[in-house]
Design the sequence.
């Protein structure tokens, strides 16, 4: 087994662990979120997915932010869980605008400064992943909808690029994102009932 394939399998397994913890809204997912980007950077760079490579630097930073945001209440300076919640219309509008700007900037960079053969798909998945990861760090339930889109596009992209273990991983991610949305809705309704009692 060559080094790249071993890394791909390792990233696949850590990705499953991350997904399991994300599905259960467990803050330990952010610890897996520190390891997987380091593996993915090597894989993406070697396959010419430069935007995905750069995005994983962001993933390293947001993993630290997400862990702190999920486990520490800055207003009260005490440990308290961040609740799962809906994104507000104003925040959604701002997030959509940020996605559009990031997408355009990445697409232009990929077209003009790299040899990427899939610049628009790479830019789409990267820009939406950046926004979705921030939404996840803030525990907005709509992050699952963004991930469904990202993951489904990644399946085709990774098959095209010959990254088959990651294609399978992202197919699993797509299914789990659908199930995760429903799971988080149940958690939200349970927490709402608990808070009303």
Sequence:
């Amino acid at each position: 087994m060559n080094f790249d394939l071993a890394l791909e399998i390792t990233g696949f397994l850590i990705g499953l662990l991350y997904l399991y913890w994300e599905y259960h809204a467990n803050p330990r997912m952010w610890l897996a979120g520190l390891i997987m980007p380091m593996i993915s950077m090597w894989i993406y760079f070697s396959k010419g997915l430069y935007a995905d490579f750069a995005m994983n630097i962001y993933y390293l930073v947001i993993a630290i932010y997400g862990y702190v945001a999920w486990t520490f209440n800055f207003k009260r300076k005490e440990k308290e869980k961040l609740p799962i919640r809906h994104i507000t219309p104003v925040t959604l509008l701002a997030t959509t605008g940020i996605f559009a700007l990031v997408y355009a900037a990445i697409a232009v960079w990929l077209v003009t400064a790299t040899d990427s053969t899939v610049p628009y798909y790479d830019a789409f998945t990267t820009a939406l992943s950046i926004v979705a990861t921030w939404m996840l760090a803030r525990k907005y339930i709509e992050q699952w909808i963004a991930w469904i889109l990202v993951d489904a596009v990644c399946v085709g992209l990774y098959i095209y690029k010959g990254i088959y273990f990651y294609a399978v991983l992202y197919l699993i991610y797509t299914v789990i994102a659908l199930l995760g949305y429903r799971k988080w809705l149940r958690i939200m309704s349970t927490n709402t009932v608990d808070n009303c009692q």
The chain has a mean pLDDT of 88. Residues 3-189 form one domain. The chain has one domain: 3-189.
